[in-house]
Amino acid sequence: MNSFLLYALCFAIVIAIVHFKFNLTPPLFGSILIGFWIIKMKFHRRFGIGITCFKNPKPNSKAEIDVDAELLEVPPHLVIMVNGIVGSSADWRFAAEQFLEKLPDKVIVHRSECNSSKLTFDGVDTMGERLAEEVLSVVSRWPGLKKISFVAHSLGGLVARYAIARLFEYSSTLESEVTRRICNCKEETECTKNCIEQNYEARIAGLEPMNFITFATPHLGSRGNKQLPFLCGLAFLERRASQTAHLVVGRTGKHLFLMDNDDGKPPLLLRMIENSDDLKFMSALRAFKRRVAYANANFDHMVGWRTSSIRRQHELPTFDLQLIDEKYPHIVHAKVGTVDDLSAKESTNVGDQTIDTEEEMIRGLTQVPWERVDVSFRKSKQRYVAHSTIQVKTYWLHSDGSDVIFHMIDKFLI
């Protein structure tokens, strides 16, 4: 979201809470929400948000024009960029331009267009299905592609995690015939797991998975103490937010607060920490050479530090956050992750269900190693919009996050 919309949405959630607390009349409550929606749409029209479409760029050029893939020597690496809630493809404009400037012959960038504005209220699963279809469409237009990476902001990180699970399944289905022949199997069910793993490499949309990078993504959801920081850790507000989020952001709100219960199934975010019959969530994540979580250590009013960095409270750095490289003045901590050694963890006595669920998600996601990069805009004038600054959503408003984008590109695995 743009900063204006970010705070409008925050205020709308508070209004929803107040509505339930003080029983505002439906007309008054509806009028407030409609007013916010009208303001948002006017803001979009004024600045062109959600109107301009990103076209795959011609190599060695920043121009965003549609070209015939057959006439070009296509860079081998596709980078898919995914926006967050109430966002659009325009949110990643600055980062996409930096990719093309620094790696003109190495990557082709596609900023996702399928989940923008109010479509981001449809739920993580619906958005993930749309993103998967969009990726397949892009890949089909560029036959020379060999590798794929994802860069996602906020809610977009959850959507990307869902999409790669769908795309991983698609790739393995395409290769099942080849697998059966290699393993001398008459039917797929006769092939052992070891034989399959030894004779083909995991693919995402038929391409080699390289980088999976998220910026300020609520991997553990928004439920729990200080996971939605603008509620100031007040328990009664956090409880009300869980109960009312769906009134503001639809099914997405239920998913973020783990309040969904589709056909008696566990919450979607809890299901996304393991493989299921048709969606290989963890196998898809494991397939990437790198998984990186950029997280705001402070001043992010939308996504807490724990949930964006996939860590427990006691694992967060407690020392004074200081820059580690003058080239990246807002990067204050970076650590290459290791697989979570559960046997070395001390047993935690917790009675609250939210904490239990959070611990379960941490353990599930850390079955694969993550690089954690902590960011702090504490000394920046743009610190109060850190959630957008980390992405440089709008350059004139969030330019202080440029070094974070440069850090991401410099460390990018080609």
From TrEMBL:
The keyword ATP-binding does not apply. Residues 76-307 form the DUF676 domain. Pfam families: DUF676. The chain crosses the membrane at residues 6-39. It comes from the Eukaryota. InterPro entries: AB_hydrolase_fold, DUF676_lipase-like, Lipase-like. Keywords: Membrane, Transmembrane, Transmembrane helix. This is DUF676 domain-containing protein. It comes from Pisum sativum.
